[in-house]
Automatic annotation (TrEMBL):
The lineage of its organism: Eukaryota, Amoebozoa, Evosea, Variosea, Cavosteliida. The keyword Transmembrane does not apply. This is Flagellar inner arm dynein 1 heavy chain alpha. It comes from the Eukaryota. Belongs to the dynein heavy chain family. Pfam families: DHC_N1. Residues 84-152 form the Dynein heavy chain tail domain. InterPro entries: DHC, Dynein_heavy_tail. Signal peptide: none annotated. Keywords: Cell projection, Cilium, Flagellum.
Length: 155
């Protein structure tokens, strides 16, 4: 098993097993315990994000971290300050990723000479930007941005 596979397994374990377990509510918890648990969950989510960034650097691809949230009503979601903060954190993570991708693509050159090298160069560039385009057109991502617009308008 190589390093990227180990990181993928660790990322999946944290996001699919540990975070859902941590996010389950237990009856009778005190506000202090609740606050500590929320802080711990936030730190685990940040760690998962760092793992995702490391995987992207190892694999050379880009994957936007889209939080696992449900938005039914944009206006109602915009009033939830914790949700708005999670969305803002995610969007702030996207900026350097997209900038790094753009910089990397600008600096790439065709490998080899001739028309086939040029075709492969543009095919690879198209695949990179198409992947980003598909992620940016995710319906949840669009709702997240709508929530931020409403939240900023209400401030």
């Amino acid at each position: 098993m190589d390093d990227s596979q180990s990181l993928l397994l660790l990322e999946e374990l944290i996001k699919e097993v540990y975070l859902p377990l941590l996010q389950q509510q237990s009856p009778g918890q005190s506000k202090i315990t609740d606050a500590l648990r929320n802080e711990f969950i936030g730190n685990v989510q940040k760690f998962a994000t760092q793992i995702t960034h490391t995987i992207q650097q190892v694999n050379g691809d880009i994957r936007l971290n889209i939080p696992n949230i449900k938005i039914r009503d944009v206006n109602q979601a915009a009033e939830d300050t914790q949700l708005v903060a999670r969305i803002e954190d995610a969007v702030e993570e996207w900026n350097p990723l997209i900038a790094s991708l753009t910089e990397r693509e600008i600096n790439k050159q065709p490998k080899g000479n001739g028309p086939m090298a040029e075709i492969e160069f543009w095919r690879a560039r198209n695949a990179v930007y198409n992947t980003l385009y598909e992620q940016l057109n995710n319906p949840l991502l669009k709702k997240m941005l709508d929530v931020l617009e409403v939240a900023n308008a209400n401030r």
